[in-house]
């Protein structure tokens, strides 16, 4: 901008000099013109040609001047707009204070995280300390990178504004000056004004750019420091994996010579652990909320299931096979926390410790009074040992007191485990696999004792926590599966009429044990949770994770096995959820004293609910798998060709299903008659619907036939049906008495509607009787024929009692003897 000002001043000076020289030249030309002679006059043609050349040049100059003026005006407007944009952008102040505060906080947290790793190292690194430090540094690096990205965007925006201003001020049209001196002076004044206005903006942009660059340098230094520290920790961890059986300390009976007091170790372990926990919870707040919502949803369902069993007097006093309903809230928390803890990738140990402690408390309360006293004591001992070991695992640096604590606890655990296996009553054990986990615990704790005695601290601590964790996780998983299995079996008892089209599981195959697949998943989860305690777990699992996450190319499409499994998993879950929703909503429960014919209002919305679940699942699956939209377009195009050639009927049925779902000419539970097929609408599917006819068979009817046929829906009018009975009475009967008698009988029957009221109508004089007809409405179509039958019985009895005859057609036959006529008397 300063250069631009200098150039404008120089142009003003040269313009003044040029004006003076032009004025001098014009004066000389006027003096010469007076001395010309008439002999130098041009002829007419020459004069016209000269005039034409001068006019053409003048027109071209005028056009160029006008063009330059237009370009100059446009450029000045662009400069003003750019300056306005820059001023507005500069008003949005960069949070430099927040950035500096974050950098100070990062340095402070880095100091806390580095304690025991980069400072106060002690005699040996510990695996838990390295892991906690790596998690904290990763979070700090993410924060620093976030600030760095914001600064880089700000820097880029400012550089873009400066570039736009510089490019506009260097437009060639700005340096094309008008020939008229007055116009030139005005133009130069305009340039000077523009230069004056752009100067402060340019200076402010320069200052802002320098400040941002200064902050960016500090952030880059912090990022470099964090990345270097993480690489150093990774080297420590790799060395620990390569030397798993390395001796870190002398034998336990030798002097240890630890330099750091235990109180100081506990204090920095608490600070570092809480810091890692707070970072992780902050970044996974959404998953925490999801976990709470799942617990609430499970509790609501289990409580409603318990209410159904209580109303039906189906709940056992000892809760055998119904333990999941003993404490619905605790069962819901136990099931959800045990299963969904895997949605948290690489959590800090303190979070896992909270999950496992909550689950142990829930299971302990559920166990109370249900398992035998001996195995209850064993469980409490295992929980107590686990709490001791988990608390010790939160200590991030070695000490002599900790080594002796680990040794004594491991020896006690070996003794308790051995006595449990020897003297324990295995017949009272409800889950037999628990004895195997206790035996494995004895082995691990014995190995921990040996490693601890001979100075293998890290190996000893890993075995120490793994032994108790193995038992607790195994018991939690086994009983979680047991509770889930009980819940499924109890749901099948309540929702008795399963439909294979909606959701079906064979209760006989469910039985008292969960399916084998559940146990396979249990073992995999057990291995994952147990393996996280070993330094080599991450390095052993990396090739498998790389195999699943590695990108592969098929033609122009790039994919990974993770994306494929994610797509299949989300779609499979969507289908399963839609079927479960359909099953538990559409099926009737066991009788609880309510009207068995009660209509299910939500049943008619099942198709829309299932479509919504599947659509959301498909959208999430496509988004999560990263499938390109153009590939979906190709598939839809191919599907369109298929529809045109041979899928018209299928599409017709699918569209008809949507029309039924929205227009609702028929709902689930309605009593219908479709092309001679009468019965109750059991389900409405995508392509076809199911009608349970009066004979007990399920008739599958395509949705297109439902819309195209003459559909009779008895339920639209309230499930009523009009019934008539024809009766003939003798001619000598009292007609008013008959009417009153029939009216009383009809009014007494509670199955007959009172609005409209029953009608007794005399029809005609018959051959042998007066015909009358009874018209009445039954409250429900299902009671029509039973009501008619009972009325016939009641009317017959009443007519007999009141001596009213129901005649039947009679004919008199006269027989004449022809032989008697030939011989008259």
UniProtKB/TrEMBL annotation:
Span of the signal peptide: 1-27
Start and end residues of each Mechanosensitive ion channel MscS domain: 649-715
Localisation per UniProt entry: Cell membrane
Pfam families linked to this entry: MS_channel_2nd, MS_channel_3rd
Main location: membrane
Membrane topology of the entry: Multi-pass membrane protein
Segments passing through the bilayer: 285-302, 323-344, 350-371, 378-398, 404-422, 434-455, 467-495, 516-534, 564-586, 607-627, 633-655
Domain Mechanosensitive ion channel MscS C-terminal: 724-806
Domain of life: Bacteria
Keywords: Cell membrane, Membrane, Signal, Transmembrane, Transmembrane helix
Family that this chain belongs to: Belongs to the MscS (TC 1.A.23) family.
Annotated protein name in UniProt: Mechanosensitive ion channel
Organism: Pedobacter gandavensis
Lineage of producing organism: Bacteria, Pseudomonadati, Bacteroidota, Sphingobacteriia, Sphingobacteriales
């Amino acid at each position: 901008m300063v250069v631009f000002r200098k150039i404008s001043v120089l142009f003003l000076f040269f313009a003044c000099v040029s004006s003076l020289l032009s004025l001098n030249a014009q004066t000389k030309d006027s003096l010469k013109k007076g001395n010309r002679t008439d002999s130098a006059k041009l002829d007419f043609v020459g004069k016209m040609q000269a005039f034409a050349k001068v006019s053409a040049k003048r027109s071209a100059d005028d056009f160029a001047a006008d063009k330059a003026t237009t370009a100059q005006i446009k450029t000045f407007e662009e400069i003003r707009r750019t300056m306005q944009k820059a001023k507005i952008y500069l008003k949005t102040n960069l949070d430099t204070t927040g950035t500096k505060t974050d950098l100070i906080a990062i340095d402070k947290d880095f100091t806390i995280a580095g304690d025991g790793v980069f400072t106060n190292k002690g005699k040996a690194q510990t695996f838990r300390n390295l892991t906690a430090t790596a998690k904290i540094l990763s979070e700090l690096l993410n924060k620093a990178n976030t600030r760095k990205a914001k600064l880089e965007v700000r820097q880029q925006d400012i550089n873009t504004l400066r570039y736009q201003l510089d490019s506009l001020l260097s437009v060639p049209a700005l340096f094309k000056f008008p020939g008229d001196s007055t116009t030139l002076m005005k133009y130069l004044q305009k340039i000077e004004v523009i230069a004056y206005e752009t100067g402060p903006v340019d200076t402010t942009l320069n200052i802002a750019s320098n400040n941002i660059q200064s902050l960016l340098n500090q952030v880059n230094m912090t990022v470099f420091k964090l990345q270097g520290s993480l690489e150093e920790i990774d080297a420590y961890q790799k060395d620990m994996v390569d030397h798993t059986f390395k001796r870190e300390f002398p034998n336990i009976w030798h002097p240890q010579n630890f330099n750091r007091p235990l109180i100081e170790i506990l204090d920095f372990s608490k600070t570092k652990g809480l810091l890692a926990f707070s970072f992780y919870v902050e970044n996974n707040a959404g998953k925490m909320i999801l976990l709470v919502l799942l617990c609430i949803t499970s509790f609501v369902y289990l409580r409603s299931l318990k209410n159904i069993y209580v109303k039906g007097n189906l709940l056992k006093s000892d809760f055998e096979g119904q333990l999941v309903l003993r404490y619905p809230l605790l069962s819901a928390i136990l099931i959800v926390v045990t299963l969904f803890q895997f949605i948290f990738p690489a959590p800090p140990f303190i979070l896992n410790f909270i999950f496992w402690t909550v689950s142990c408390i829930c299971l302990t309360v559920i166990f109370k009074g249900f398992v035998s006293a001996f195995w209850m004591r064993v469980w409490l001992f295992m929980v107590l040992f686990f709490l001791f070991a988990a608390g010790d695992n939160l200590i991030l640096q070695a000490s002599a007191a900790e080594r002796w604590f680990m040794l004594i606890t491991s020896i006690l655990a070996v003794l308790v485990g051995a006595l449990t296996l020897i003297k324990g009553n295995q017949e009272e054990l409800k889950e037999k696999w628990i004895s195997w986990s206790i035996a494995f615990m004895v082995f691990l704790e014995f190995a921990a004792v040996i490693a601890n005695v001979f100075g293998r601290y890290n190996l000893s601590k890993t075995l120490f926590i793994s032994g108790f964790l193995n038992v607790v996780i195994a018991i939690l998983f086994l009983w979680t599966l047991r509770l889930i299995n009980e819940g499924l079996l109890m749901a099948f008892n309540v929702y008795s009429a399963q439909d294979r089209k909606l959701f079906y599981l064979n209760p006989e195959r469910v039985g008292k044990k969960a399916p084998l697949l559940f146990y396979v998943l249990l073992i995999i989860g057990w291995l994952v949770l147990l393996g996280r305690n070993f330094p080599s777990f991450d390095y052993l699992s990396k090739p498998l994770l790389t195999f699943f996450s590695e990108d592969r190319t098929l033609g122009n499409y790039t994919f990974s096995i993770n994306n494929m499994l994610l797509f299949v998993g989300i779609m499979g879950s969507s289908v399963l959820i839609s079927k479960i929703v359909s099953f538990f909503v559409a099926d009737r429960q066991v009788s609880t004293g309510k009207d068995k014919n009660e209509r299910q209002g939500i049943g008619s919305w099942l198709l829309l609910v299932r479509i919504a679940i599947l659509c959301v699942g498909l959208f999430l699956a496509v988004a999560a798998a990263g499938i390109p939209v153009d590939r979906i377009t190709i598939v839809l195009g191919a599907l369109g060709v298929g529809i045109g050639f041979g899928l018209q009927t299928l599409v017709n049925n699918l569209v008809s299903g949507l029309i039924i779902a929205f227009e609702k000419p028929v709902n689930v539970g309605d009593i219908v008659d479709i092309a001679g097929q009468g019965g109750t609408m059991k389900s409405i599917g995508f392509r076809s619907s199911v009608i349970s006819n009066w004979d007990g068979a399920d008739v599958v009817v395509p949705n297109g036939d439902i819309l195209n046929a003459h559909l009779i829906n008895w339920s639209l009018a309230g499930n009523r049906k009009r019934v008539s009975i024809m009766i003939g009475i003798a001619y000598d009967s009292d007609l008013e008495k008959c009417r009153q008698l029939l009216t009383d009988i009809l009014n007494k029957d509670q199955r007959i509607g009172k609005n409209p009221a029953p009608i007794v109508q005399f029809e005609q004089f018959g051959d042998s009787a007066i015909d009358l007809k009874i018209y009445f409405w039954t409250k429900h179509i299902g009671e029509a024929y039973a009501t008619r039958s009972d009325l016939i019985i009641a009317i017959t009895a009443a007519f007999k009692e009141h001596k009213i005859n129901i005649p039947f057609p009679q004919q008199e036959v006269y027989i004449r003897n022809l032989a008697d006529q030939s011989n008259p008397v």
